[in-house]
Amino acid sequence: MTVGVRNTDAAAPVIAGINASLPRPIGISPLDLADRASIAAFVEGWDGPLDILINNAGVMATPETRTWGGHELQFATNHLGHFALSLGLRSALAATGSARIVAVSSSAHQRSPVVFDDIDFRFRIYEPWAAYATDPDNAVRLWDASLNMLD
């Protein structure tokens, strides 16, 4: 098991505490889902098959911030980053013959509709919770469409 984290120094003592009670240690690897180079480095460093990928955690209700390509930070991290990671690890997942991808989401989508014409809040007034609330619904719709295109 490997945990991808933005801050390996902060994660190390937590993982060490967990590892103290495990027969096989959990590994830590740097991974910033808002940074395409970080995702590429994680994927490049992966070795061997991958049975399960759990896309969990991200960012929530952040101040307005733009990432590569001008994407809103929450959408870039919580959706585009997870998708890029999953796509990059596709061959490792396929190597097992029965791998699974689990995308963890929330019920926050009930707070805001998806505005497909402005997913990145380029034209609307930015509101952190509204931006976060669009992510779960975006993830479900876009993941479904994207993964179906891979079949």
Describe the structure.
- By secondary structure, the protein is mainly alpha-helical.
- The chain folds into 2 domains: 1-30, no CATH class; 35-150, Rossmann fold (3-Layer(aba) Sandwich), CATH 3.40.50.720.
- Helix content is 44%, strand content 11%.
- It has 5 helices and 4 strands.
- It has helices at 8-19, 36-45, 73-88, 90-94, 128-150, and strands at residues 2-5, 27-30, 52-55, 100-103.
- The strands form 2 sheets. Strands 1-2 form a two-stranded parallel sheet. A two-stranded parallel sheet has the order 3-4.
- Helix 2 runs parallel beside helix 3 (73-88) and helix 3 (73-88) packs parallel to helix 5 (128-150).
- It starts with a strand and ends with a helix.
- The mean pLDDT is 86.
CATH hierarchy: architecture of the largest domain: 3-Layer(aba) Sandwich
Based on Cα principal axes, name the global outline: globular
Order of helices and strands: EHEHEHHEH
Give the CATH level 1 class of the largest domain: Alpha Beta
- Low-confidence stretches are none
User: Overall pLDDT, averaged?
Assistant: 86
Roughly what percent helix? 40-55%
CATH topology call of the largest domain: Rossmann fold
Radius of gyration: 16 Å
Main sheet strand line-up: 1-2
Number of DSSP strand runs: 4
Helix count from the secondary structure assignment: 5
Largest sheet: 2 strands, parallel
